[in-house]
Every structure is written in C-alpha cells, then in structure tokens.
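Lab meeting, action items carried over

1. Structure of the two-component assembly. Owner: GW. Status: complete.
Input record:
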Amino acid sequence: MSAETPLLSFSAADVGYGSVRILAEVDLAVSPGEVVGLIGPNGAGKSTLLRAVTGDSDLLSGGLALGGHQIASLSARDRARVVAVVPQTVSAAFSFPGAEFVAMARHPHLPRFASLGEADVAAVERAMELTDTTHLAQRAVDELSGGDLQRLAFAQALAAEPQLLLLDEPTSHLDLNHRLQVLDLTRDLADSGLAVLAVFHDLDMAARYSDRIAVVAGGRVAPAAPPADVITAETLHRVFSVRAVVGVEPVTGAVSVTPVMREGARATARPGRVLVIGGAGSAAPLMRRLVREGWEVTAGALNAGDADATLATALGIEFAEIPPFAPMDAEAAIKVATLAEAADAIVVSQVPFGHGNVDNLLVAVRAGKPVVLVGPIEGRDFAGGAAASYWVEALTGGAVAVANVDETVAALAAAVLVGDADAGGQPE
Amino acid sequence: MDLGRNTRAVPALIALAVALVVTVIAAIALGAVRVPAAEVVAAIGRGLTGQAGGMADTLIVGIRLPRVLLAALVGAALAVAGCIFQALFRNPLADPYILGVSSGAGLGAVLALTATATVTGVRFGAVPAAAFVGALLTLMLVVRLASLRGRLDTVSLLLAGVAVSYTLAALTSFVQVFAREQMATLVFWMMGGLGAASWPYIAVVGPMTAVGGVAAIAMGRELNLMLLGDERAGQLGLDVERFKRVSLLVASLLTAAAVAVAGLIGFVGLMVPHMVRLVVGPDHRVLVPASMLGGAIMLVVSDLIARTILAPVEIPVGIVTAIAGGPFFVWLLVRGERR
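Predicted assembly:
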C-alpha cells in the first residue's frame, strides 16, 4: 500500500443511472501502487462503481476525483490518457488484426491526422509482449476465442499506458494459467506504480492479489481493508448468504475461502434440535446433512482447529470449544450438559474416544435423551475401557445403534416423533 | 509488427483510382454516338485549356463529361454516407436509403423544387439546402423512434427507417399531385436519374461531396472506435455523443448532395462499403477513401448501363442500382442469418 495521495477518490458519492441510485455515499480511494478489490453479490453495483469513472454510469451527487480533477471536468480524451478499462465482455464484430485492435487504445494520445509514431508502436508492442499476445498480432479479432480476446482487451488497456487500471472481472473467460498470468501481471504493474481498481468474483483471487478489499452490498461500499480483515466467515454469511470456511491457503499464504452451504439450501421445516458428539471430522457429513434438512444442530466439546470445529463455526453451530489438543475441562462438560438438556435427541458419531473427550460420551449417555450411536465402539476406545462401558450403558438404556448417516437421520426422526407423541399425551 | 500499414491498402487504393479513370473515359466514349478513347482525352484537354469547339467537343465536354462526373460524385457521396451509417450503427444493413434519410432529403428537395419552380437561379442553392434539412430531420426522427424501446438495435432501426420512409414517400407524392405541371419532371427525378446533369449541378454537389468526403476520411480512426461499441469507444477516449452528432451531420450532408441533384438512388451506400470491406478490411482510414472511389465507379457504370441498355430510351439510374441491389440486400440478410 502506498502513502501517496490517491489517484482516484470517491467522496460521499452517490452513483447510479439517470435518477436511479445504485450506491450511496461511497468513500473509496485508490493510490498509485495498490490494488483495491471490489467484492459483493451479483447486481450489488460493483460494475456500476467502476463505470462511474469512465462516465458510463452517473455520479448523482458527491465527489469523484481523478488525479485531483473532478471527473466531470475532464474530456473523454484527457480521461482516457489516465484511465484504462478491461471490460467484462469484449465484442469484436469486425475483423481487425490483433495489433490494430490493440493500437486503437493510442487514440487519446494521437492528434487528428497523425498516424502511429515510434512511441505508439513501442507501447503497443510492449503491451502485447507483457500479455503474451504478440502471436495474435495478425489474427483477425472476430475469429479469436473468448479468452484470447479478453487478453487482447487487456493488452489494449495497457497500450494506453494508463496510471489507473479498472478491471471488471478481467479473468472471466480465462483458463487457470492465463488467469494467473493476467493477475500476476496486474500485481507486478501495481508494484511498479500503477493504481488498480478491480472487481473480483473469485474471493481467493481477490484475497491473493488485492492490497485492500471493499465489500459492495446493500447499496453501500464498506471501507476498504486488508483481505484478512474483510474476508471472514461472518462477512461471507452476511453478504453472500453462504456458510463458508475461511482459512489460510498454506502454499500462497493468502486467505482462502471454502464455501460449505448456501443459506437458501436450508430446509424450512424444523424437525427438531439435536446434539452431535463428534470430533476429528467424524461428524462433518452428518452436521452438513442435518443443517441442510433444517435440524437445529448443536455439537459437543470440540478442539479448536479440529475439522468438525471449523465446519461447526462455518455453519453457525453452537458447541463447547476447547483449546487445541487440550482435554475437556469442567466448564466444557457443563456446556455440553446444557446443550444436551436443550436437545430433543443426541447423536454420537464415529469418533475415537480418549481420556480427553470421553466425558462427551458420558454426558450424552446420562442426559436422559434419546441417543443414536453410530458404528461399533470396537477399535476406538482409547480411554481404558471407559468409552466401551458407557456405550453398553447407553444401549441398555434404549439407545439406537446405526451404521451410517442415512440410518442416523432416520433414527433421529423416529426418536423426535416419539418424543412429540409423549409430550402430546401429557396434559398441559 | 507493421502497425498502421495495411499492406493491402495502398495497392487497392491505386487500383481503384486507376479503375475510376478508365471507367470515366470509357463512360464518356460509349453512348448513342461512340467516340474513340483517345479523342475523349484530347477533347477534355481542349476543354481544360478553353479551346473546345465543334460538335464532338460539345458532346464530350458539354454533355457527357458533366454527366459522368456527376455520377462519380453522387456515387462517392452515397458510398461514404453508407460507410458512416454502417459504422455508427454497427449495422451492415444501414444505408441512407434504408434509413429513410434519402426520402427525407427527397421530400425537402421536392418542396424546394416546387416552391422555386419559376426562379431557376435560386434552385441550385435552395434544393440542396432543403434536401440537407430534410435528411437531418428524418435521421433524427428515425433514430429517436428506433430507440424508443431502449436499445438502438438493428430491427427497430430498420423498421423505423421503413416506416418513416413510406410516410415521407407518400408526402412527396402528395406534393407532386399539387404541382401538376411539374409532375413528370418530379417523378422522373424521384426515380433517380442523372439526365439533367450539367456543370452548375457539379458546382453544387462537388463542394458538398468534397467537404463531406474529407471530413469522413479525417474521422477514420473514430469510426474504427465506434465499431467497438459506444461504451468501449468512450473508454478509449472518444466523446461519443459529440462524434455521433458531427458524423451524422456529415452523412446527412453527403446524402443531401446526392439526392438534390440525382433524386433517390438506392443501394449504392449499402453495397459499395460491403464489397470494398471484403477487399481492404474494416479499417475506415482505408475503407472510407476506397469506398469513395468504389462508389464513383459503381454509379458511373450503372449510369452507363441506364443510358445505353435500351438506347435511345434512357432508364433512371436508380432502377439499375435497385435491380442489382435488391438481391444483394437479400444475400446480406441470409448471410447474416447463417452466421
């Protein structure tokens, strides 16, 4: 990030089309040397915000300055010498050769009757080399693939030798290799002083290539902040209505998003409340399934960083969190007991039990609720026989033994149904 | 990288220029009375030096030369207007005739012709001016109608053009009915003809075509940008709204010049840019001058056919271009569908 004065700045800007306001009170600045990413749901106004800079959407009120000048005071020609755009889709209806197509970006640099000078040709050649499109120089643009055309549009933008680059989903038509190529190039150009404002759909790419990210949603643009501060499970749920696991990609070190479930995918029926005793990823498929089918799910004690704990956090499941590798303490046991008390039924997944987590099983067995036990206990009692004895106690007390997720869900449904019938039989 | 040096451009332009000279000489030589090509050149030489005399010189310099030159100018004007319309609307089917601009110019011209019937001297200034105003107003109306439903798309543009064109044609006929004594002249003029060609006509249409042509050539780079779409052209530094106004003004001027002296001649503005584009490519820095030459050649040839095919009867040149152009238009439509 740069401490220089911003090249582009929106200040209390309302942006829209005609009299329709799409975004209100936008405050956003982009300085030379930084990439600012825009993320947000479809139709939130990310492109509208970009388009305001080139006059393709309207600034309804507030300020929009480019290099210290209000945008309205600049001619199209002056503006095009500073700002270049890579559009989301490029159309090429006529058969210009690739190089001529790229050279069109030199228009704002050329006087009326002048033809391309040495500097212009050099800029075009450089732009095509950087984008690895030199081999397309003689190809007719209307015969190119969508990906080649998009890279040529990128070359066209660079050929204008801009100070500010606006990217609207610049990689939508590109394969993995070229996607990285274009974004790496963007990053390099930013590192040598270019200012970049880019719309991203891919959150991992946004996190990896942006210095700061602003969320566009609900007619507002949130203040731009470093990727790790913006891309959180909470933000993704609020903005995209998606439950997701946000971690750090171990190789690149960038924030990484794993979407788990759409909010809309959750069934509206509420069959009942179930406590899941899990750990080590044993309960993940079951929790996903139960949440999707509308169950109110809670979980027992889980170690922070455990796969089940990560998923539970992403799905918004309440559970007793204990430090990594730590055994359950009294506090956790009380929390699990409280959750068990509130549940209609309890499931014990196929988790290995040791001294650290066997209390989970104890609480489950003695809570006086219908219990469903998944899989055999053989081979996963590392608590010196304690787990096996609780297991037998549970079965003796009427617990149902099942083998897989389908059977578990069926058993839970049956247990809750019986519970309802019991409750209905008693006078209020 | 040979940027900006369209390798086919220079040879194509030279070839077209040579072809135009040859066509002009041939068109002067051929007719009811055949004149040897060498005699044509000699007579023009005498005409230029003011030594013309005798029957042959009168025929060549006084009758055939202005007619052939007028055909060349009108053809050039229509072809360049077609180039501009096709680029602005990004629509290969746009031309002054189809968009109704010719009809608008025609109505303007007919009104002026009727109103100034007795004052021949005023005609030359009034008719092109009225044609220009008619063309401009029609164009504004058609574009406005076509964009009523939002986007300015191909279908609405063609429909609006056809609708306006019919209405204006009816109005033109209406005017003609009330100018009974001039009706024959007007009807013949509306069909598109160069029979009335004379040097004063050239003095009017020549400068209009020259101004419009030079302006269009100067706009080559901008016309190229327009092919990328309004939005992209704006992003690349073109003041799109202003450019549209200026270029439509130029196209209307060219259309008016052609219509004022030659009536309604269709399809030249449609066919010529297309055929030329197949040879030199889409770059307007080449396409505009090449279409200018191509349009001139096409109309000189069409006029030659018009006055020789049924000699001594002369048919309006508009009929010749329409007979050739109708099937061409269908071919374009079918080809567009297949793409």
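2. GW to write a short summary for the group page. Key points so far: Chain A has 15 helices and 18 strands. Chain A touches chain B through 39 residues (CB under 8 Å).
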